């Protein structure tokens, strides 16, 4: 299980670097929202791999909080982007 965990963490780190690149480079707010959501999913997966490796459920509360924060954050930023695009239409 240790080799699998190490490989999974390396793959998650590579994906997280890609998400961070997209988060900082943009160019649109939609790209940044998707990158942030993907980064949070990577964090959740990393925590779940650690929970599986340690065979302990103490971090599951953290996973739920991060997942809830990701959902709320994505919803709020999507609403902001929608309002911003409506203002740009000249209404």
Itemize the secondary structure elements and their pairings.
Blueprint: H1 2-25, H2 29-54, H3 60-88
Helix pairs in contact: 1-2, 2-3
Q: How is this structure best described in words?
A:
This protein has 91 residues and is mainly alpha-helical. The chain has one domain (2-88): Helix Hairpins (Orthogonal Bundle). The chain has helices spanning 2-25, 29-54, 60-88. Helix 1 runs antiparallel to helix 2 and helix 2 (29-54) runs antiparallel to helix 3. The longest helix has 29 residues, at 60-88. The chain is elongated, with a radius of gyration of 16 Å. The N and C termini lie far apart (57 Å).
In short:
The chain has 91 residues and is mainly α.
**Structure class:** mainly alpha
Number of domain modules: 1
Radius of gyration: 16 Å
Low-confidence parts, pLDDT < 50 over ≥5 residues? none
- Overall CATH class: Mainly Alpha
Q: Could you say what the CATH architecture is? A: Orthogonal Bundle
Total DSSP helices = 3
CATH topology: Helix Hairpins
Q: What is the total tally of β strands?
A: 0
End-to-end gap:
57 Å
Report mean pLDDT, rounded to a whole number. 87
- Largest sheet descriptor: none
Q: How much helix, percentage-wise, in residues?
A: over 70%
Question: Which word captures the global form?
Answer: elongated
Listing every helix as H and every strand as E from the N terminus to the C terminus, the arrangement reads HHH
How much strand? Answer: under 5%
């Amino acid at each position: 299980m240790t080799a699998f965990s190490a490989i999974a963490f390396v793959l998650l780190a590579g994906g997280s670097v890609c998400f961070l690149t997209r988060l900082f480079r943009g160019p649109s707010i939609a790209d940044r929202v998707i990158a942030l959501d993907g980064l949070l999913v990577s964090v959740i997966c990393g925590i779940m791999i650690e929970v599986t490796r340690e065979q302990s459920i103490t971090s599951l509360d953290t996973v739920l909080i991060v997942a809830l924060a990701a959902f709320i954050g994505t919803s709020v930023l999507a609403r902001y982007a929608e309002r911003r695009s409506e203002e740009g239409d000249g209404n």
